[in-house]
Write a structure and sequence with these properties.
Length: 558
Amino acid sequence: MSRDYESLSKEALVEILRRRDAQAHYGLIWEREEIPAEKALNRDFVGLELDSELSCGDGPQGNLIIEGDNYDALRLLTSTMAGQFQLIYIDPPYNTGRRDFVYNDRYFDATNRFRHSTWLEFIYQRLILARDLLADDGVIFISIDDNELFNLGLLMNQVFGENSFVANCIWQKRYSRENNSAIGNVHEYLLVYSPNPDAFKLRRGMLPVDERTRQNYRNPNNDPRGPWRLVPMNGPGLRPNQQYPVTTPSGKVLYPPEGRHWSVLEPEFERLRAAGRVSFGARGDSAPGLIRYLDEVSGLVPWTWWAHDEVGHTDEARKEVQSLFGTQTAFETPKPLRLMRRVLDIGAPEKDALVLDFFAGSGTLGHAVLEMNTADGGNRRFVLVSNRESTEEDPDKNLCRDVCAGRVRRAIEGYNGKDGGAVAPLGGSFAYARAVRVPMHRLEHQLTNDLVWSHALLMAGHPLAPYEGPVAKSVCDEQMLLYCANTKPATMKKLGEALQEHRGPAAVFTWAPAVVTALAEELDRPLTVVAVPEDLRRTFRQGKARVVDNDNAVEEAA
């Protein structure tokens, strides 16, 4: 909201300038006050309404697809699953002006003078929530093109901090020349950030050894250990304790090349030499090289150049969509499965990793998770969030139900491809749920048993399941979770029986915490009691939505 500076006194203006100078800092600034408020921003409580008919596979359904605005979904997830995700990948709208950015129920006008600021505010509101979902050694990958690359980079520095930058990967999205521009555009980017890059480096996955790498290993001397190659034993920079002389078998004395050092300390060099792991060439007078065997290479360190023949291209992605849905128009800008596999290889190597995509689009990341689990026997889980993307022009569109969930369902159950051949099912399951808003001041009257139960399950880390009252129960990893919907005698009896049957850790969500606490004391049963709706209201993350109060002052939630 703009100020009426003309009505202010000199002293008031000077004070405003002092405050502004004191707050000045290097970074990205956009026109937050001038752009239209986003309709999706709100401070309501958000719950999940499970749709069993649109869910897929047998329970427990560890994977989750959420239909709704991702601002709502992120506030729900940060309230229930903060710090739990090893990997977040998103493919947000690129703000190209070609009907790719739905804002306030219509496609954003590319001629709007606040085009970049509107996009930045839209992304910012979601990134500040996503930041709290990552584990300390987690990582976020964001796909983007030239339209907003530099703005997004500055925004990421502002949200995560400059020291959180890991890499800017370049994806070669095309394999044919593009001749419409002065310089053909054949690539996009993936910005990579981590709350703790050093911790992420320790857990980041290696890439599988490819055939091109294998061809560099040969066995000209029939070494019983198999193929090998020479690795130079020097590195850049001067290290005084690694500048020692090396005497070759021919008697020649060598030092590291100018400006470089030997890659190991002298005792380690002599150990490797004695073990027959150092080569000085056929004549015994070349610079030393380390003999590295192919069986010692567990994987390749990722680098920032992602060629199309390694991770796929846009044409491949469209053909995958056509194979799944019979048409390439089901989703306009899909990413190829191999690209998502590369992201997962690096960011979710653990077989039990939890991953999130809150711009899920056609559901490629979920599909890739299922493929990866099938390949290595893993149990990685995904949470996908997709809006309906309905607009004033197309009010009945439901991208989440028809495309995102549709694709993942086909991958799980199997389908007939474009050529008529059967594609084998990958197996797995997912729960399908809709994000439902409830005004904070109406929780006592509008918070349904279904919403309470789904919220309880998420908070406890249990798979979503239908509410079956009046005492709903879930047991996962020896922890029992209960929701007591009322305090009728029959209900309390059933609750007491459940508490006595299970002697492990237990938590009860209840509208009457005093009554449940008294029952626990009577049974001499340790218990965690969660008060509904008070504790839900207290712990719910409301986000940073800008709200204008009655005095026209802009207030931002913490």
